[in-house]
Amino acid sequence: xxxxxxxxxxxxxxxxxxxxxxxxxVALSACTGGGAAPTAPGGASDGKPxxxxxxxxxxxxxxxxxxxxxxxxxFQLDRLLYDTVLRRDTDGIVGGLAKSxxxxxxxxxxxxxxxxxxxxxxxxxxxxxxxxxxxxLADPNTGSTWKALAFGDGTPTITANDADxxxxxxxxAPFADLEAGLTVxxxxxxxxxxxxxxxxxxxxxxxxxxxxxxxxAESKPGLSYSLKFNAQYKAWPDFSSPLDGRPAETIAYTxxxxxxxxxxxxxxxxxxxxxxxxxxxxxxxxxNDTIHQNRITAYTTYVVFNERPGHAFADKPELRKAVAQAxxxxxxxxxFSNGNAEVLTSIVPASYExxxxxxxxxxxxxxxxxxxxxxxxxxxKMLGNTANVSFSNGADYIYSALTTxxxxxxxxxxxxxxxxSTIAKGDSDWDLVFIGDQNAGQTISASLSRTMGPAVxxxxxNFSASDNPAGVEAMKAGLATTDPKERCDHFEAAQKTLxxxxxxxxxxxxxTVTITRAxxxxxxxxxxVDPATLRLMG
Length: 538
Prior knowledge:
28% of the residues lie in helices and 22% in strands. The protein is globular and about 65 Å long. By secondary structure, the chain is of the alpha+beta class.
């Protein structure tokens, strides 16, 4: 390994995951993850009479197929049901199903799969099992928007060697964020039984589909989901700081987007784990020493336009500019988070490496100019998300800002799962949304690919289907180099194209507070509270 790359790796290790997503980029060297370290014992339940952690999600999962997941509620369950090749730790990346890995270039990776891991039906998780799941994720016929997050826009060649337990991934185009991509729950390894029954996989009815610590035991759509610990599970990551406590035998999720009611249940001891975005509700937990709080910037919010032919903002940058002039970040922040959220200068938080911090690149609010451009525009179809009160209020604010400018807007609000599944379809009938971009990979490229490059209907991640060749070229150049300055130069150039073209309107960071009761712990890793680290204490 060169001195230059050694210095880069040391520099990256010195910063926190939350402060710099470069921790997840490729260093052209050998990387060692954990062996099968039993930092938490199996599914014993004698520490708590019920052996159950009661948790809350906002809505039904969109699917139990991780490759097609949409919405944070789906990601939470996927993290518990499926293991990933790699995992995030507080100071970088460690092994998941892989005990070690090497990257000889940004296009060439080899993963050594740990011994002893099994599927929920007892099937050994071999290199072939891992490779077949990754091939399914990468197959264009699967239609996964997460393929690009894992492998970039190129074509991966994935091969397995069971004799030495290795999986090799070769990429047709360099992608220096592959390691980070293989940590996210949506790249979870689907076991053979699940790949053999894709309809059952989607419904959650394949008992042997799961590679993670839990299996789906009971499904009551609209009401609740119960997950049961897999007694044979041993593939705990070797975190730098071992997890305390023991995994619950059962994790019982109930569905509710009423944060006030959920807060009542937390205070009454009926819910152990939930996240909150409404600051009036969060204030109810202040000073209560039986409840732990973890605040994170779980996502960033920004306006996205449907730029496909025939839609209101297609080939009309002047109208997209007018939307940006109509919307005040300060006004949005007031209704979205009582003014508590970080005001953005890009599509990722200020803590991310290579983020634009020049506020002057963003268009300033100008009510008169917005009205001049939008007063003659009618029939704008806006989709809103009712995941929680903050999202609902945010949609109302943008609707009000546009209608105050004279635009004719039809606002339709839907639940979280419906929202994401709708905009993930290229033929859906919407013109404008604001999204909560949960950047699971914690890399700037993950959010850039949401706003430029191949559209979702072309197996990409770009919701808008914008045609931005200059931005795509800059993003690809950033992914092809491991030099920190070169990466940032390219990624900053890519961001500038978004603002020059008015493809996005940055809003605020989505701060949420995750609550655990005193008898339950969950670890904050970067800007995420990992549900797979849920433990019963005492």
